[in-house]
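User: Teach me something about this protein's shape.
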Amino acid sequence: MPESLFKVNIEEYMLPGNRACSGCGLSLAYRYALKALRKNTILTIPASCLTVLHGLYPTTSVVIPCLNCAFASTGASASGILAGLKALNRQDITVVAFAGDGGTFDIGIQSLSGAAERETDFIFVCYDNEGYMNTGTQRSSATPIGALTTTTPFLTKQEHKKDMLKIMEAHDIPYLASVSSSYPVDLYDKFVKAKRIKGTRYIQISAPCPPGWVYPPRDTVKIGRLAVETGMVVLFEIEDGKFQLTGRSKTLAQRGNKLPVIAYIERQGRFSKISAEQVAQLQNWVDTRWEEYLRRAST
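Assistant: First, the predicted structure itself:
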């Protein structure tokens, strides 16, 4: 069946009036993720932009039950919720952890890795806005080379982004996917699939951030699509060890018309100090990874 917005659940679980920034890529992705997950879900989230979106107790803009946990303990929190549900003999509820890249790539990686090693039956979602945006745009290991943050001592970050998807694949989990807030139907389909699978599932969302990435809020969808068009973000899934490109990335692979990374970075103020050498390094990093994905998709 071809992708169509007509097959997306029409019920809303994230209400108007939330506290997200204007043009927030996370809020767009979260809306469609919740539509796919539906009501028989319990969320756990660490300190992050998402806790801001949910609102201050006792009010919230999200109608699905949510537990706020400590920054480093998201995987452990999900494991505890599952243990409680097991004690109550409740097997009809999906437990979902939602953390930012700081709470996944950095501070939360130990509890996530431990949960995955134990084959914990939950979905861990990383919304990746490539920095600690909730606390002032500090560098994370998800920040790409050449980007400005408030904590990069040499004006721009000097290292490439950590490949968290590859790290999670090494845990031999049953399902792993890369999605973008700018392609909501691809995102929705993967969340629907992940909900049906047992064991640890990992989904990484590319979520553009207007204040952190320094672009007009109206351009969020365009920036997210350019990330995919240039290969900075690649849409794919790995189910039971089988890799396949999906959505726009699959089309780009078939047509061979991937754009150069400059088309993406020139629209963002965070790359205003990137050097020509760093642009070349970034392009080489993207191309090398893209070729690896193409080889895997052809086998």
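Now, about its shape. Strands lie at 41-45, 66-68, 94-100, 123-128, 175-180, 201-206, 236-239, 242-245. Residues 20 and 235 are 25 Å apart (CA to CA). If you'd like, I can walk through any region in more detail.
User: That's plenty for now, thanks!
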